[in-house]
Specification:
Layout lengths: L1 E3 L4 E5 L8 E6 L3 E8 L2 E6 L5 E5 L4 E3 L1 H9 L5 E2 L3 E6 L5 E5 L11 E4 L2 E5 L4 E2 L7 H8 L12 E2 L2 E2 L1 H10 L9 H4 L4 E2 L11 E5 L7 E7 L2 E6 L1 E7 L3 E4 L2 H4 L6 E11 L1
Length: about 270
């Protein structure tokens, strides 16, 4: 059985409890497979990236077989490209906030449809086709996400984690990344060194223990944009991320390395 998300953002938790850890989030119009049901809760698998977890049953809408088939065949090319915008329902006149990366099924000329409900959205907020990956497009897109705060399991304009940020940005360029940094590190092709890196490559980091714990988007061979505390641009070299943030500079004059570079991947 499948279901669809008709809310802006839905938390996915490790256990069937509102106090349980948030693992990730679902965005409007994403579909899921229902794996298990409990009173008030459903364990789901996100069709987009395969992540599993528990959601409040009130926050997803079960689909009939015909509706699931309709959602599966809908054109899902277009996505919201700005951190947040609003869609207007032509059925009841109500608005719903939509966050970056949200798929707009069967989008055309500022309109899209979900299960027979028609919506209007500002076309300037939409990437109707995947963007071309280059340094200019990447920075022009990612700069609008600067200073979004870090939130474990988050992937929306009010809070993101490091891999949520990279997943959303890459989705605007037509790349379907898995959810967590360690999973994203298994995708794409390896890049030998910083000198060989291109804008949009992902850099992966650990704490000198071999376990991938962080990921960021390379802007060029000396800068990275990543979410650590907030989305920000910092220096990058063969050793890792060099931060000059006040809390780092205060412990070591001029700044220090905060993340150890392990690998670089291209998608």
């Amino acid at each position: 059985m499948r279901a669809v998300v008709l809310h802006s953002v839905v938390p996915v938790r490790a256990e069937a409890s509102e106090s349980s850890e948030q693992l990730t989030q679902l965005l409007f119009a994403e579909t899921v497979e229902i794996l298990e049901q409990k009173p008030r809760w459903m364990r789901i698998k996100n069709d987009a990236d395969g992540q599993t977890g528990w959601v409040d049953f009130k926050m997803i809408t079960p689909l009939s077989d015909a509706e699931a088939a309709q959602m599966a065949k809908a054109d899902k090319t277009a996505r919201i490209k700005m951190p947040v915008t609003f869609a207007l329902s032509e059925n009841n006149g109500q608005t719903i906030p939509l966050t970056a990366g949200t798929v707009l099924p069967d989008y055309k000329d500022g309109r899209f449809s979900v299960l027979g409900v028609n919506f209007r959205v500002d076309a300037l907020m939409v990437a109707p086709q995947p963007l071309e990956m280059n340094a200019e497009n990447l920075m022009n897109t990612a700069r609008f996400f600067l200073n979004i705060p870090y939130l474990w399991g988050g992937k929306n304009a009010l809070g993101m984690d490091c891999s949520g940020f990279t997943q959303i940005i890459h989705s605007l360029f037509g790349h379907h990344l898995l959810r967590n940094a360690s999973e994203q590190a298994t995708q794409g092709m390896p890049v030998k060194s910083i000198q060989d890196a291109l804008a949009g490559d992902l850099a992966f980091f650990d704490h000198h223990d071999g376990k991938i714990s962080h990921v960021g988007l390379i802007l060029d061979n000396s800068r990275i944009i990543h979410c650590s505390g907030r989305v920000k641009v910092e220096k990058l070299d063969e050793c890792g991320i060099f931060s000059q943030e006040p809390h780092v500079s205060s412990t070591k004059k001029g700044g220090d390395y905060t993340h150890h570079l392990v690998s670089i991947r291209r998608y």
